[in-house]
Amino acid sequence: MRGRYPAAARAAARVTTVLATLLVLCALLLPNQLTALTPGAFLRIPVEGIVGAAVLLVLPPRPRRVAALLAGAGLGLLTVLNCLDMGFFAVLDRPFDPVLDWSLFGDAESFLEDAAGPTGAVAAVIGVVVLVLALLVSMTLAVGRLSRLISRHSALATRTTLVLGTVWVTCAALGTQLAGAPLAAGRAVALAEDRADRVRVSVEDERVFAKEAAADSFRDVPAGRLLTGLRGKDVIFTFIESYGRSALQDPRMDAQVDAALADGTRRLDRAGFHSQSAFLTSSTAGGGSWLAHSTFMSGLWITNQQRYHTVTSSDRMSLTGAFRRTGAWQTVGIMPGVNRSWPEGKFYGLDSVYDSRNLGYRGPKFSWSSMPDQYSLASFERLRHGKPGGKPLMSEIILTSSHNPWAPLPKMIGWNKVGDGSVYNAIHRAGKDPKEVWQDPDQVRTEYARSIRYSLDSLISYVTKYGKKNTVLVFLGDHQPVKAVTGENASHDVPVAIVAHDRSVLDRIHGWGWKDGLNPGPKAPVWRMDSFRDRFLTAYGARS
Length: 544
Description:
Distance between the termini: 93 Å
CATH class of the largest domain: Alpha Beta
Mean pLDDT: 91
Helix content: 40-55%
Radius of gyration: 28 Å
Number of domains: 2
CATH superfamily of the largest domain: Alkaline Phosphatase, subunit A
Structural class: alpha/beta
Oligomer: single chain
Number of strands: 13
């Protein structure tokens, strides 16, 4: 081509060089959060590019080629990690952990399958793999091309490097800013150091956590002194998926949820139930429900998979396990989100577990949720709570209808119409398509609020219909929804409430300062979620 079309060849070479330069600059300046991804973020002078050019200038030919290859591959890997950070910040409100987070990609694939269907999920996975490979290859080729140019035009490259280096040092010394950020940038090195620190912290965390987990003030408490204030009660612990503080206090969606809580408080009052509420700060946000569940039940701060596996394979007494230890309760789990073997049930002290495979559901999935919350509660009544005789029940129930992507959604029907769930086929067909909902942020928030209202209505309706004088309900959110709903800088707080027919149950927590009713209000106490187990066991344990 060069011989026949020299002008076109020169133009193509120049375009390729410009593209290679832009690709490398973008990689060096790429932020790791979507909120920082603005045009101004790329109007910087990256010190890594200046240092890299200087190193390539002084190296002999063969080492220079090796250095360019390694630099290109490293820069490509750094870009991939930056993109992973963006996704994790957007969904889980934290960066990607390069040691512990690989197992979460299976959950991401499951979510894609629910939101876009099996074919869409497979296409998305293939597309991501191709993009990652293309990025690594193109970044390596780009650095290689720039390395060859530096070698061929060493005099010009030396002068340019010296000028840019002088400008960078001057701007750094003067604190020169552009669009509110320093013009002299060193972002790539800082991010690489941050990731190295994350790896070190993740490795060290296992030792630190083992020491924390070994300290348990309730380990040696005799069974006869545990939970004496709840003996004879049917106690239900219920997690509502993605039920966060934003649902109650974000003006873009609080009207629906506040109305549901106000109505629920009135209905419970009429049925003779009393309620108090507050907030807990979850160990996770946007996802990772199992981390919140284990934090709440274990009294330990569970923020990653390593901690989760460590605690659930240990002999630490969980809150629900304390009920089993007394011998005074039958312990049951209703887990509609579980669709395979769940050995963690042993840690939670559950005598029997009913999951998506044995709850008898014959209706459609509502996106990620395998069955509507009302069906899960109806099954609990049919299979265990409504059966006479035996010991009181301690139950852990997970309500999943408010799980992302919040479309299509079920709706409340008569309890006598729930049946085997086939009645939900028509409701599912009439529901919204998640792909359409997620095209509009306002729709996403609206459907999220609707899902929370449905979950609350299901639970409150269940208690008012099937609750007894010995019923005690503790319900809470596991975490806040994704940032697409909450926006930036939302807390990790979730509402928590205790409902009981027997007023003396709430008298036990008088000193907690919780607010009357299901809606805690903006001034309610806020505790870390891992503090709840010990407070609860203390409040309802034997008193000297």
